[in-house]
Amino acid sequence: MNETGIDAVLVHSEINQRYFAKFKFSDGVLVILPKNAYLVTDFRYYEEAEKNASKDFSVVMPQKRSMFINEIFSSHGVKTVGFEKDISYGEYLSLTNLYPDVTLVSLGDEIEKLRSVKSADELEKIASAQRIADASFAHLLSVITPNMTEIDVALELEFYMRSHGAEGISFETIAVSGDASALPHGKCRNEKLKKGFLTLDFGAVYDGYCSDMTRTLSVGRATDKMKDMYYTTLTAQLAALDAIRAGADCAYLDSIARSIIDGAGYEGCFGHSLGHGVGMFIHESPALSMRYAGELLVPGNVVTVEPGIYIQGEMGVRIEDTVAVEENGCRNFASSTKELIELFT
């Protein structure tokens, strides 16, 4: 705010509100000034916010929010107010009507840049989320049967995570088998597991922070072609993991995995980027992508590393870990085995 000359910031995103105020609520706004900050909400959240929100914020529940906020702007001499980049045009027009005496200025990517570098406390929350996900995978291996449907498998993972400390799931769980494993974001079907690959992509949310992992199993004995696809993907992933460190170029990391997959005869079969940032939202900055040449990782970034090979209409494999970037390498939060597991043999 000091660097850009912005006098105040309005925060409406629930994720950003939780990031700054350390409190989850769904009706209200944060008003942040250089020396004062307000959590504006209503009766439903007031008492809990008073108790649990960051003490940097004064918790208030005015009868008319816009009037109260305009009074704050007036009393502090606010002329320019920053707003988050992801609001709609309709929301922008609403803000101009609510606060006619100030100039609204887009914050661009500034909040996302702040969130992309995790503190030690944030890293531990992601580690806790990943421990829950790893435990759910181990549990699934102990109970999975050939009579389960893809939906059954997804629900088993989700129930275990929710009953073992997760406040929710990071995204809609993917559990796809047979020909559907060729779909990177395939939907679970109410059909029994099909022979071939079974791809499991899932994650837990712990205290607001997400984990994200993918493991691919073989339903029945893996064919030679399946083994080649699997271990080519694993080789690509391990090579990329080995290269991650502060200062590494995001596009270069993608190229490491992609060149291994292409060189093994699977050119064109790795259709997505190598990875994405993870934090309070499942897709954050930075991205390990060919589109981000020149963007360098810094300590505290958390990214996924998830190469895959997909043969349309036949099968696919993906292996994914979530890691924290460090000065001389990375901290891998995942502990689940990456050896190819053959089920029901």
Q: How is this structure best described in words?
A:
With 345 residues, the protein is an alpha+beta fold. It folds into two domains: 8-115, 3-Layer(aba) Sandwich (Creatine Amidinohydrolase, Chain A, domain 1), CATH 3.40.350; 120-343, Creatine Amidinohydrolase. 35% of the residues lie in helices and 23% in strands. The chain has nine helices and 20 strands. The strands form six sheets. The chain has a six-stranded mixed β-sheet, sandwiched between helices. The chain has a four-stranded mixed β-sheet with strand order 8-9-12-20, with helices on one face. A three-stranded antiparallel β-sheet has the order 7-10-11. Helix 6 (120-143) packs across helix 7 and helix 8 runs antiparallel to helix 9 (250-266). It is elongated and about 75 Å long. It starts with 7 loop residues before the first strand and ends with a strand.
**Unreliable segments of 5+ consecutive residues:** none
Q: Main sheet: which strands, in order across?
A: 4-3-2-1-5-6
Task: Provide mean pLDDT, rounded.
Answer: 97
Question: Please, what is the oligomeric state?
Answer: single chain
What order do the SSEs take from the amino end to the carboxyl end, as H and E?
A: EHEEHEHEHEHHHEEEEEEHHEEEEEEEE
Structure class: alpha+beta
Into which percentage range does the β-strand content fall? 15-25%
CATH class membership of the largest domain: Alpha Beta
Query: What is the alpha-carbon Rg in Å?
Result: 23 Å
As for the number of domains, it is 2
Please tell me the CATH architecture of the largest domain by its name: Alpha-Beta Complex
**Major sheet:** 6 strands, mixed
Q: What would the CATH topology of the largest domain be?
A: Creatine Amidinohydrolase
- Under CATH, the homologous superfamily of the largest domain reads Creatinase/methionine aminopeptidase superfamily
